[in-house]
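Morning F.,

Quick status update on the modeling queue. The single chain you submitted on Monday has been processed. Sequence for confirmation:
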Amino acid sequence: MMVDAVTLALIKKLGGGGGGGDTNVIEHIKVNGVEQEVVDKTVCLTVITNAVNDLLNYYKKTEVDALISAQIQGTGLKPVPKMSGRFDDKTWTGLTNFYGDSVWTDGDNIYNSNGDSQYVLDKVTSTWSQKTWSGLTSFRGDYIWTDGDNIYYSNGSPQYVLDKATSTWSRKTWSGVTNIYGDCVWTDRDNIYYSYGDSQYVLDKATSTWSQKTWTGLTSFRGDYIWTDGDNIYYSYSGSQYVLDKTTSTWSQKTWSGLTSFQGDYIWTDGDNIYYSYGSPQYVLDKATSTWSQKTWSGVTNIYGNCIWTDGNNIYNSNGDSQYVLKKPLKIR
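Structure tokens below.
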């Protein structure tokens, strides 16, 4: 049994029978958030022991042993710090050697596109099957982007738009700028921008027109170094660190602690935290204090953020023949 969350509500001492000694008992217990019926309070410790053993086998960390043991033996429960996740080996069928930056989605299916190598994923069986496209048959997934309605492939010239229903790529004509690279397209959640050095544009979706965009504070930059923590938009390239004020289109210098020089294209999220992964060391962001702290992973240590991807359910690290799936930490309350 792998326990995702165990809530031990109250452990206390009660007078035992017979010899008159104290006995550890449980008032109530939740496993995976579901209240468990307590028939014999003295044997409920077995449930805890099984859960603890599962946790220890999973993490193999002595500090976890100490934390949980202290809780079980005490009369009250203390919060347990969030523990590191673990990357386990992942086995795929059909396609076993690929990179995460070639993986993309049309909102329904997951694809891997790297030149003539075109595959679609069956998530249930972890099987990659060859995919046949019309109109465009050889392309790379890292140049694909969306405006929220359509899927585009932009790698200089020509440009393409996808008809999902027929798996057909058709030529796309833009106004204002014609040679676009998909990895430099980004959004602030309100507008779509194209940023490639001195070429700065904003998209009018209704007319497919790119108009020149004027920024303040930072005027020449690339969109592939832009990232978000869910609240703010940042530009990170080496020692050049900026945060965007959307209302005024102003980029202001950003000061970080712990890590001050890094690139935005190696930043990723597991849905809870923001990480910077570029080989070794690894970092996790404390948004409240703008502080990057070193992060320790189990299973694999040298991770690159541009190789991280998700199928909507799981998070994977795909770097050639190194294939991993992230097991997020168990939550103990």
